[in-house]
Structures are given as structure tokens and as C-alpha cells.
Amino acid sequence: MIRHKAVYRGGSGEIVEKKSRFIANIKSVETVEEAQVYIEEMKKKYWDARHNCSAFSVGTEQVTTRCSDDGEPSGTAGKPILEVISGSGIHNIVVVVTRYFGGTLLGTGGLVRAYTDATRAGIENSDIVEKIPGRRVDIAMDYTDLGKLQYMLAQNEVLTEDTEYTDKVIIHALFPESDKEKLKKKITEATSGRVMTQEGEEVYFGTVDGEVIVF
């Protein structure tokens, strides 16, 4: 599990260049097969377009990438789309940019710029999340330690899913794997060993518009 960016909710973006329309559609995928299925879906949806160019990046450690110019001059469509994906740091993503020809040739430079700009517009209109590898950790305490713990967690920017209030308080927190031991030590030291932590499952987590998301 490695820290990386991913598409939480795909979007679309459109630009117009010399009357040619370029429409980018973005989707999260986990496999090459899913990416290929989505590309075919977009080709069927925009069946009347001149080109449906595409690129995808699948995987987080062993990454598979492919791109297609779909009839545009070699290197003017698929490669620019893929370069935007690579530069964004987003993994497990497929982008299809549809072109409706406007009657004016754009030239090599114009095509590269248009496919690049359309892809960026699509990504900007998508919800992108940074997926952090970590663990669910339950922190059980007496009410007298709650304020101190909440302050400490906030100071360390620890995300929480929810809090149970019964005879004790249990905070269901999300610890980044890289900081897990350090945070557990801080809790022990801050409460002189009174507060217990229990590790749960490994997860990816992040935030989208302030909402905590667990994958």
C-alpha cells in the first residue's frame, strides 16, 4: 500500500478550439479490462464524433499505461492525455477525449495543446482524493482524558470516523501507517498510559470536500 492520488468521482470537461469541440470524460478504474470497457462505452456514446482518443494508468506500484490517438496524427492525442495523467500523479484512471471536428485543421501543436487542455479540464471537474495507507485504531478512555486526546489528535491532524459515548469514550480514528507507532507513543505519554489503543484493519483513507472517506 502506497500513498497516491485517485479519482473519487469522475467528471468531464470541454474546450473549443477553432470550432472543434474536445470533450474529456474521466473515470476511476482498477483493471486494464475496466479501462477498455469504459473506452468502448464512450465510443458508443459519442459514435458520431470524428475521434475518441484515450489513455489510462492502472496500478499503484506496477503501473500499466496505454494510449490511443484513434486516427489523429501519431503522438498528438493519446500521448498528451497520458502525459497529463502522469504529471497529475493520479493512479487507476482512464480518460477519453472526444473530438467533434469543426472544419479547421489545428496542426500538430494545436492538437497537442487541445487534448492537453481538455484532459486538464476534465480532471479539474472531477473529485480527486489522496489515498493514505493506514489503519483503523480504536482509542478507549475515561471522560476525564477526552479533552486532552481530542486536542492531541487535532494537533496531529488525525482523522476520525466517529466517537462512541457509553461508560467510556471510544474514538474510532484513522492512523497513517507511517505515523502509527509515533501516534500511539504520544497517546501513551500524554495520558501516562491510561488510554488504550487497539489496531483494526488496514485501509486507505482520505478526505473529499471535508468528508472523511475510507476505502
From TrEMBL:
GO terms for cellular component: cytoplasm. Residues 18-121 form the Impact N-terminal domain. Transmembrane segments: none annotated. InterPro entries: EFG_III/V, Impact, Impact_N, Impact_N_sf, Impact_YigZ-like, Ribosomal_Su5_D2-typ_SF, UPF0029_Impact_C, UPF0029_Impact_CS. NCBIfam families: IMPACT_YIGZ. It comes from the Bacteria. Residues 139-194 form the UPF0029 domain. It comes from Anaerobutyricum hallii DSM 3353. Belongs to the IMPACT family. Gene3D superfamilies: 3.30.70.240, Impact, N-terminal domain (3.30.230.30). This is YigZ family protein. Coiled coil: none annotated. GO terms for biological process: regulation of translational initiation.
